[in-house]
Structure formats: structure tokens, C-alpha cells
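To: structure desk
From: M.T.
Subject: fold request, one chain
Message: Could you run this one when you get a chance? Sequence is below, nothing fancy, just the single chain.
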Amino acid sequence: MPRIISDADMIYLRATPMPRALDSVQQSFVGMYPSSARTASFPPPTIITRAAADETLFPNEGNCRRFGQLGRAFAQRTADRWNDSKEMDYLNSLISKWMPEGGQRVAVDSRPRLSGIMDTVNSTLAHGPKTRLPSPFYDPKGREIIDKIGTEEWFSGYKESQEYRKLGIGALVGDIVTRMVGSAEGSGNDGLLEVAGVDGDLGKGRGGESGIKLALSGCHDTTLAAVLSSLGAFEGEKWPPYTSHIAVELFKDESIKTEDATPTEPAPRQSFLGSSRKKTKPASLMMRKPTPELTAEEKAKLQGHYVRLRYNDRPVTIPGCKLPGNHLEGDETFCTLQAFKAIADKFTPRIWTDACVEGLDEPAFPISPEPPGF
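Reply: Done. C-alpha cells follow.
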């Protein structure tokens, strides 16, 4: 990335409708490019948001009916497993006297829920001593138990169910893959089209986004754990702490040349993007095409590209990327783009809103576990 920028044409910014997520994007952007690193003529950057009903930047139980069913089923299973356990007895010995309604029992599904208590404890730790609860809430053993149960309640579904992954976070992972494949293909589907200017005008300055090099998305702890769990990279992890982040990096081996580097025309999108585009080679629409259906020519465009995930600046390894031929020689954390796409394709919905109303009468749990990351 350049040290000084005159516009945000190479940057894709997005946030959920929640103010704190928008604040995170703005602060991250300004931290990376403060006023001293932006020219005086720098125009306001575009930050993309979606209506809550269409939001896929976090697991959207409230607007995806089938995912709501699955979430409740896995939460109930967690409650059945832990509510009468010795671990829950220990928590009650610590904090039940502060529960409402005359000291009701602390439980996964109590009011407040155990996960809500965890949220409150973590928030007070982040905001200083004036917000602190009574000391038993910070008992180390108690916090370990709360974290373990909360992580199971919210994220075990991603580790066991392909449908859970598809409805909970598959659309977002599919969007990320689309942008990376679009970058490798040179089609403009690297985020360019979502931030294009009036009537599709792709000129310089605001509305001239092209060649996206950096994408920042303001999301949530449930987003991060969902992505990592769905890729098989969250084993043994605790609930994501404050300021957590995932970096999804795309690398290119410059020694590998593709036969056809001709820029392609961006794939058709919704009509509000307009049609005033330069005449170029038509796009192949390979971004969302399942990997087994890619032609040899399309697969060739992905060669020499690698994907690496870093969670809080620590590289993580995706199980399927460990297989021979699926990673950079000597480093399993660098997954080939083709292998990464193939793994993500398996839980990327073709149309998320349609998938959200399918299978409503089907069992919530798969017949057998469906391991992630392959």
C-alpha cells in the first residue's frame, strides 16, 4: 500500500448497520491513513452498508429463519448438557445471589443468559474499574467455565453442520472468495463494482474504485469465530477478545505467468450500477461457479495465487490446505486459491435468502458430524 493516498479507489470499506462496527471501520482506516497520509484533495471514501434483513457480515439469526432454528437447537443442546453440571454448580456458588428474581439459578438459558453474563464481564474489563461488577464475576476458574460453555453454545454448529456454516457465514465467505478470484482474474469483481460511482462511472476519485488492494469490514466477534470455525481453524480457541480481527491475505507468485492476462469485463450486477463500461473481454462468471465445474482455462487463472488467514496476527492452518498440492511448498498456512475456493464453495449458498427458508421441517442436526475445513 502507498504511504500517501489521494483517493480511496484501491480500498473496499464495509460495515454492518451497528454503529460500533462502523466506528471500527472508520477508526481502522484513519489509523492506517491519518490526515498526514491523505492529500488535501482526498474525497470522502465509500463505506458500504446493507439493510439488516440482507446483512451477511454477521450470523443473521433474526433474518434467516432456518438459521434461527438451527441456532436455537444447538443452544438448547448446550443447555441440556451443562445446566445441571458440576461446572454450572460452581458458577452458581459464585454469582447466583446477584441474579434477578430472588436469586434464580445461573444457566445457559437463564435470564440473563450465561453468554450475556460473559458479555457484561468482558465489557467491564474493557472499560475500566468504574464499571466493575463484584469480584466473584472475575474468578479465573469461573471465567474459564463461562468461556468454554459460551463458545460451545454459539460456535459448535459451525464445526458439525454444513448447513449451519452455509446459513450462518457462508454468504460472507463466498463474498470474500468472489473478491479474491475477481482480483486474480482481473475482472473487476474484487469489490470494484460494489463501490462504483454514478451510473457505473469508473473514473478516478470518488466512485473510481479499481484494483482493490485492501478491504476492511467492520463486523463482530461472532463473525470472526464463525469464519474460523467454518474453515476448521478455531479448535481449542476461546471467545474472540476485544479488538480481535482476521486478515485474509491474497498473495501472487510472480514467477508463475498465466497465458491470458487480458482484463475482463466485470460480471453483470444489479441494474443500479449502470452500463457505461469500457468494452473488454466478457467475464467468465467463475467467481461463484463451483470449483469442480471450472474449465481448465479458468483454473489456470487461479494458479500462482495463495491465501493465508491470520487471526490476531497469528497465521492459522486450514485442515484441507494441508493436503499435498493444496499449499505453498514448505508452508501449510499458505493455501492455494483454488483449494481455498473449493473448501469455501461447499458451504457457500447460491442464494442466501432462498436457503434461509428451505428445510424448515428438517432435523436441526446432521445425521453424522460434517467436519469443517475440507
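Reply (cont.): The chain has eleven helices and eight strands. Let me know if you need anything else for the meeting.
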